[in-house]
């Protein structure tokens, strides 16, 4: 079934308490957006409550961010190795070694960050 383009707006005003209640129900659902949750509720469709482990969601959010960082570091490292193959003088090589050392330290720091985050989640999970 094709999704229709949504072109109409429905504006409502809420009190702070009403907003907190709606936000709570929304966060307990599997809807990804508040507008999706409101449409589902207003059109009397069934709402699926959250069944996923929230701590796993937090873990995945952290891991996705760290994966992005590691990919960036790996790309820089690959570019450095490629540059190494084109160096013609010792001075160029020394410059590359200094840059490599910085990237290596960044990589090791990120690996330590991953280890720490995994350890925190493991401790929380084991409680």
From TrEMBL:
InterPro entries: MobC_2. Pfam families: MobC_2. It comes from the Bacteria. This is Plasmid mobilization relaxosome protein MobC. It comes from Flavobacterium cerinum.
